[in-house]
Fold this protein.
Amino acid sequence: MNSEPKICLRTSGRIAACALCLFARLLPASPPSESEAEIKAASHALIVAQLRYDAVSVARLLTQDFVYVGHDGAVVGRAAFLPTAADLEQRPLKLLE
C-alpha cells in the first residue's frame, strides 16, 4: 500500500491560488495606468454631477445603453437615472456630501 498523503486537486488548486495572491501582494505596486486614472476621473465627475443634480453632465458621462441595477435588484434605464428637479426635494443627496 502506498502511504503517501493524497491531496485533492481542488484543494491543491486553491492552495496554489492563495499562494499566488500572497506573492502578488509582496510585489511593489505599480503606478496607476492612464486608463485607471481616466476611470477614476470620470467616476468622480459623475458623483459631483449627481450631487449637483446636473442632468446635462450626468447624461454626457453615461452611455446611451446605460442601465442601473439598484441594491434591491430594480433595473433603471438611462433616462430614468438622470436627476430631475423633483429629485432634489424627494431624494436629497446633501447627506452624501
